[in-house]
TrEMBL record:
Residues 49-223 form the FAD-binding PCMH-type domain. The keyword Signal applies. The lineage of its organism: Eukaryota, Viridiplantae, Streptophyta, Embryophyta, Tracheophyta. PANTHER family: OS08G0158400 PROTEIN. It comes from the Eukaryota. This is FAD-binding PCMH-type domain-containing protein. Pfam families: BBE, FAD_binding_4.
């Protein structure tokens, strides 16, 4: 049915509002295009040929989400739910089958309760808004989630969510106390009424397979009044390969108060002869003062030659700005909902369980230079090793030294094929050096190269190709939960959890 004849009347009759036109945006509405583009992060999906939604619903009340689900289901229209729009493959706003977007940017209230060390946050809020609001209430509380402030809490937390304090406190999803979700029948369920199976599934299994998450109740974590940060860079000519080799051996065994990640990029060689080189930046957040950090680093990583002059003490919220590449005096910048600059990008992920040999690294540097890509390597260990693989759907816990994110960005849409091809080559090169059977991947770094569902139903076997990579042994349990709560597979996308066939 044309959307105006069935969905719109159905939706209007169900919501108690005189201004339906502000809540449903169709292609003829002035704001449609503006809202559609507003939170698209990956320019690959901003082009005019990308399929567009029949309508964008911008709920300001939970009842609007309920009405959208009920009416879309009645008409067999797919729903794409968008919180912050950071999905790497655009799954929150692009679909090949007729669809609407539920864009939650108006549902973003945040209540911080310091006495109970918790916060209630609606899905459309960004991480920046969450961190800022916590910091306005307390200098000694924080939340363990991602470093990019414009990410939406809806997608991020339902896919795991990690940042600079993961070694101390685990993932964002590990710190969820309760949630509210609109299910396939349009009911609002909380932890008690959804039951522990669904509550388990939405903390790492991705929200989009199970319903529309409205809000989270989060456990805040304690941070000291003063933390220490540093960044030290070296090129391979200066000996960065040896430093990196050492880093691989200690990054996951350091005290859990130390987060020491490395970012490996391509730069220009010093000197007149030119050419490309690899630059490795070791960046750190330590939950404490510099006097405590220096001896710990001296004992574990003396080769880095960390000195007091490399370090800066600051508050936790300033460290959030520092890792987001924002001036530490500009805390209000955390409230900006869109990124200052956007590009085309393709990313992939891997988990490393054995240090990579120096010969392997030399080949990696070469492949990286050819691909013009960069790597962000996140150390595990600490709290990540204490949580069992099945506690949440996110299975990459003990035994992982670090996670790799491969990233390539470009500014000219005509170069898309070239860059994606080189990214795939880089990923192939890394196969011998990373986790195997299955080769692990992080759901929040969504990668459709790993496999995709059919338009309607997909078998367990077919979906296992990508499902086992993201979820390992938790994949089967996710399929069970999905079959229980959405047996007709209404909430689906290219990588949603499939259902078991009915008997
Ligand atoms: P978006 O709105 O695109 O949603 C992502 C997925 O979740 C989609 O499938 C969507 O349908 C679904 N979804 C969203 N809201 C939902 C809801 N309310 N109910 C049900 N389903 C919902 N990750 C990380 O762990 N640490 C980091 O530091 C970073 N850094 C980073 C930087 C940049 C620049 C980007 C682009 C991405 C990251 N990420 C990251 C990855 C990020 O965590 C991931 O893309 C999240 O899924 C983004 O969540 P959004 O709500 O912003 O995305």
């Amino acid at each position: 049915n044309p959307i105006s004849e069935s969905f719109v009347p159905c939706f209007s009759s169900r919501i108690n509002s005189t201004s339906t036109s502000k809540i449903i945006l169709t292609e003829s509405t002035a704001d449609y295009s503006l809202v559609l583009k507003s939170s698209i992060q990956n320019l690959r999906f901003l082009n005019t040929s990308a399929p567009k939604p029949q309508a964008i619903i911008t709920p300001s009340q939970y009842s609007h989400v309920q009405a959208a689900v009920v009416c879309a289901k009645k008409d067999g229209i797919q729903i794409r739910t968008r919180s912050g729009g950071h999905d790497y493959e655009g799954l929150s706003y692009v679909s090949k089958t007729p669809f609407i977007i539920i864009d939650l940017f108006n549902l973003r209230s945040i209540d911080v309760d310091i006495e109970n060390e918790s916060a209630r946050v609606e899905s459309g809020a960004t991480l920046g808004e969450l961190y800022y609001t916590i910091s306005q209430k307390s200098k000694v509380h924080g939340f363990p989630a991602g470093t990019c402030p414009t990410i939406g809490v809806g997608g991020h937390i339902s896919g795991g969510g990690f940042g600079t304090i993961l070694r101390k406190y685990g993932l964002a999803a590990d710190n969820v106390i309760d949630a509210k979700i609109v299910d396939v029948n349009g009911r609002i369920l909380d932890r008690k009424s959804m039951g522990e199976e669904l509550f388990w599934a939405i903390r790492g299994g991705g929200g989009s397979s199970f319903g529309v998450i409205l809000e989270w109740k989060l456990r805040l974590v304690r941070v000291p009044p003063s933390v220490t940060v540093f960044k030290i860079s070296q090129t391979i000519e200066q000996g960065a390969t040896k430093l990196f080799s050492k880093w691989q051996n200690i990054a996951d065994t350091l005290h859990e108060d130390i987060f020491l990640h490395s970012v490996v990029g391509v730069g220009n060689k010093a000197g007149a002869n030119g050419g490309k080189t690899i630059i490795i930046e070791f960046g750190s957040l330590f939950l404490g003062p510099v006097e405590k950090l220096l001896p710990l680093m001296q004992d574990n990583f003396p080769e880095l030659r960390l000195d007091r002059s490399n370090c800066t003490e600051m508050s936790w919220i300033e460290s959030v700005l520092y890792f987001a590449y924002i001036s530490i005096n500009e805390s209000e910048a955390l409230l900006r909902r869109t990124q200052q600059s956007k590009s085309f990008f393709k990313a992939k992920s891997d988990y490393v369980t054995e240090p990579i040999s120096e010969a392997g690294l030399e080949g990696l540097w070469q492949t990286l230079i050819e691909a013009e890509a960069y790597l962000i390597l996140t150390p595990y260990g600490g709290k990540m090793s204490e949580i069992s693989d099945s506690e949440t759907p996110f299975p990459h816990r003990i035994g992982n030294i670090f996670k790799i994110q491969y990233m390539v960005t470009w500014d000219d849409g005509k170069e898309t094929e070239k860059h994606i091809g080189m990214m795939r080559r880089l990923y192939d090169y890394m196969a011998p050096y990373v986790s195997k059977s299955p080769r692990g991947a992080y759901l929040n770094y969504r990668d459709l190269d790993l496999g995709r569902n059919n338009a309607c139903n997909t078998s367990y076997g077919q979906a296992s190709i990508w499902g086992l990579k993201y979820f390992k042994n938790n994949f089967r349990r996710l399929v069970h939960v999905k079959t229980l709560v959405d047996p007709a597979n209404f909430f689906r996308n290219e990588q949603s959890i499939p259902v078991f066939p009915s008997r």
